[in-house]
Amino acid sequence: MSYQTILYEVSDRVAKITLNRPEKLNAWSPEVRVDMTAALRAANADDGVRAVVICGAGRAFCAGMDLKPSSDKTFARAQLTDAELAARDAEYTLPYQISKPVIAAIHGPAVGVGITYPMLADIRIASETAKIQYAMVRRGILPELGSHVILPRVLGFSKAAELLLTGRMLSGTEAAEMGLVSRAVPAADVLPVAMEMARDIAVNTAPVSVALAKRLLWEGLNTGVDEMIAAEGRIINKLASSPDSVEGVRAFFEKRTPEWSMKVSSDMDTYRK
After folding, report:
1. Mean pLDDT score of the chain, rounded to an integer?
2. Per the CATH hierarchy, to which homologous superfamily does domain 205-271 belong?
3. 39 Cβ contact partners less than 8 Å away, ≥ 6 residues apart
4. Fold (topology level) of 6-202
5. Which of 122, 134, 155, 217 is an S-S bond match for 159, by CB 3.0 to 4.6 Å?
6. What's the pTM?
């Protein structure tokens, strides 16, 4: 498939999706959202892909919405009815919705949707000098993509309120100290660190186990402890005798790289709660 606004490539069982509008600091547009949906779906459908890395071309991850000062329709959501909005959103796929682990490699500006979108990834690596900003309240709108649920869970209420209500800028280093990203590294190392982590997942973890763990992590945002313990127990009970469980133990004792045989596309439903 051809893409207008991104690059998509697979190597070493890792899909790398690059936001590719460097002349606009990878500003977000409807076309980007369409391309990202297609790329995420392609990665999810390919059993040869075990992990996904999202990054940006040029000197930015994503500078936010593609603002046009002469337009009164920059934030087009305001022009839609509730029914139209729901129908439109149903057409798209977001990083948390796919079965493969998604790592965001953030460098340079990550503003507005440039941070709310990677917050729907599973892991975030940022450059120490990244410029991260929930700028929406400084533009007369609100943070989107579940920010008011996800950020308090990740940071706690007070820190989430500080970022969402002030819209202030923070560095990648401060973001790591807060826990907004997993770690901050020198700018030149952001993509290599993210790719190495993705390759480690691709080689050393069982794909169905990872897919199930990811699903439980995201469901845990709205699940009580007792319910989660029960769900984990049901899945583990089934996985305990699975081919990948047998292989994982054997590989550990034989001190070799495991050869996983189960596939997310065909085996995950068997082990769903």
Report:
1. 93
2. Lyase 2-enoyl-coa Hydratase, Chain  A, domain 2 (1.10.12.10)
3. 3, 6, 8, 15, 17
4. 2-enoyl-CoA Hydratase; Chain A, domain 1 (3.90.226)
5. 155
6. 0.93
